[in-house]
């Protein structure tokens, strides 16, 4: 039983289930061909790859020994709370502030998070997200307090 509850088997099953869900959700879209791709080509290709990757990771976990799954239950509300913080702040405070707040709240879920790393990561991700989504893609997301 412990071989079924190691990290690789659990992660592989999660990836495979997400891939299967993606295949099921995209079944109504026309697939098309490689030269004339339909709206379902990309999601079904990604979902198929995710399913295959998940199966391979799970099989590797069954064959090779990997650490058992351990979960810190305090991480779940903090990670979910970081998503809520982002959703509440992105329209009011702008994308960079919401991104930094999201990362700071999510980092509280880790006992190993270092302040310097969290600050550097949040600044880098906020700048990257703003450059990509607002300036490169032109999405109508507020940058500063709106």
Task: Briefly say what this structure is.
The chain is mostly helical and 146 residues long. It is built from 5 helices and no strands.
Word description of this protein:
This protein folds into two domains: 7-63; 75-136, no CATH class. The model has no long low-confidence stretch (mean pLDDT 89). The N and C termini lie far apart (53 Å). Helix 1 packs antiparallel against helix 2, helix 3 runs antiparallel to helix 4 (95-107) and helix 4 (95-107) runs antiparallel to helix 5. It is flat. With 146 residues, it is mostly helical. The longest helix is centred in the middle third of the chain and has 23 residues, at 41-63. It has helices spanning 7-25, 41-63, 75-93, 95-107, 115-136. Helices cover 66% and strands 0% of the residues.
How are the secondary structure elements laid out?
Elements lengths: L6 H19 L15 H23 L11 H19 L1 H13 L7 H22 L10
Helix pairs in contact: 1-2, 3-4, 4-5
Domains, number: 2
**SS field, number of helical segments:** 5
List the uncertain runs: none
Our measurement of the CA-to-CA distance between the termini, rounded to an integer number of angstroms, reads 53 Å
Strand content: under 5%
Q: What value does the Rg take, in angstroms?
A: 19 Å
- State the major sheet: none
Strand-pairing-aware structural class: mainly alpha
What features would you highlight for this structure?
flat; mainly alpha; 0% strand; 2 domains; 146 residues
């Amino acid at each position: 039983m412990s071989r079924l509850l190691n990290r690789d088997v659990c992660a592989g099953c999660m990836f495979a289930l997400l891939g299967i869900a993606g295949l099921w959700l995209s079944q109504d879209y026309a697939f098309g061909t490689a030269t004339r791709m339909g709206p379902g080509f990309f999601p079904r290709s990604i979902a198929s790859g995710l399913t295959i990757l998940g199966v391979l990771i799970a099989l590797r976990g069954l064959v090779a020994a990997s650490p058992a799954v351990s979960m810190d239950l305090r991480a779940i509300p903090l990670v979910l709370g970081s998503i809520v913080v982002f959703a509440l702040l992105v329209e009011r405070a702008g994308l960079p502030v919401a991104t930094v707040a999201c990362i700071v709240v999510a980092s509280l879920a880790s006992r190993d998070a270092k302040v310097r790393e969290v600050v550097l990561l949040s600044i880098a991700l906020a700048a990257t997200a703003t450059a990509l989504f607002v300036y490169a893609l032109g999405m109508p997301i507020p940058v500063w307090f709106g």
